[in-house]
Amino acid sequence: MSVQHTNRLAKEKSPYLLQHAHNPVDWFAWNDEAFVKARTENKPIFLSIGYSTCHWCHVMERESFEQESVGKFLNEHFVSIKVDREERPDVDKIYMTFVQSTTGSGGWPMSVFLTPELKPFFGGTYFPPDARYGRPSFLQLLEQIANLWRERKMEIAASADELHARLELITARDAKENSPLTPQTLQRAAEMFKESFDATNGGFGGAPKFPQPSIPTFLLRAAKRFNDGEAVKMVLHTCDRMNAGGIHDQLGGGFARYAVDAEWLVPHFEKMLYDNAQLAQLYLDAFLVSGDERHAEVVRNILDYVLRDMTHPAGGFFSAEDADSEGQEGKFYCWTHDELSKLLSPEEFIVATNYYGLTKAGNFVDHSHPNPLPGLNVLSIVNPKVVEADLPLLAAAKNKMLAVRAKRIRPHLDDKILASWNGLMLGAFARASAVLGDEKYRAAAEKNLQFIREKLWDEKSKTLFHRWRDGERDNVQLLEGYAFQLSGVIELYEATLNPAHLDFAIELATALLEKFYDFANGGFWQSPVGTSDLILRIKDDYDGAEPSGNSVATLALLKLGKITDEQKFSEAAEQTLQLFAHRLQNQPAALAFLLHALNFWLDEPRRAVIAGDTNSTNFHELLRAAHSVYQPNKIILGNSGAVEPFAKTLTAKNKATAFVCTGNACQPPTGDIQILREQLK
Question: Is the pLDDT reported for residue 55 higher than 90?
Answer without folding.
Answer: no
